Amino acid sequence: MTLVKFNNKRNNTLLPGVNDVFESIFSDTFFSDRMITRVPAVNISESENSYQVELAAPGLKKDDFKLNLERNQLTISVEQQSEQNDSQKSYNKREYSYSSFVRSFTLPDSADHSQIDASYTDGILRIDIAKREEAKAVRRQIEIK
Q: Which of the 8 DSSP states describes residue 88?
């Protein structure tokens, strides 16, 4: 018995070569790099007095970030565009760099909206959200009678 390799790419089209054209277009670095959604990873933690949001976004400046709070919705957004002009060069291909993302988080009712601090150091955006006094855990020992 002879084994014949099945090539699904060639057998599923009525027009030979059509798949090759589309594959060559979408395998270009222009499409492959830009078709991937790049949303920064986030860590959210809670302590006794506050909530912490840490967003990994290296390569940005603190001025690139916009933080907005509307009702219980905290939104972090970045829109970055870089364009390099060099009038002495003649380009055959020139790509502009543009990136953006938006992350939104619903804050719990225990969050104190008036006490939110943010800092950006070493590629990490850290947001500290204080808890309301009445929401902080009250700990005491109860005497047994």
A: T
Residue 119's nearest CA partner among 62, 57, 67 is: 62
Ranges 33-37, 79-83, 128-132, most confident? 128-132
Are 49 and 136 within 8 A, CB to CB?
A: yes
Q: Judge whether 116 and 128 are in contact, CB under 8 Å.
A: yes
Structure tokens at 4: 């014949």
List the one residue out of 43, 102, 46, 37 whose CA is nearest residue 73.
Answer: 102
Cα gap 61→50, rounded to integer Å: 25
> DSSP alpha helices (H): ranges in 28-129?
29-34
For residues 112 and 96, what is the distance between their CA atoms, to the nearest angstrom? 41
- The values of phi and psi at residue 110, to 5°, are -80, -5
Quick check: 111 and 131 in contact, CB under 8 A?
Answer: yes
Per-range mean pLDDT, top range of 17-21, 42-46, 86-90, 130-134: 42-46
Query: How far, CA to CA in Å, does 61 sit from each of 15, 46, 70, 125?
Result: 50, 26, 24, 10
Closest CA to 67 of 114, 118, 14, 134: 118
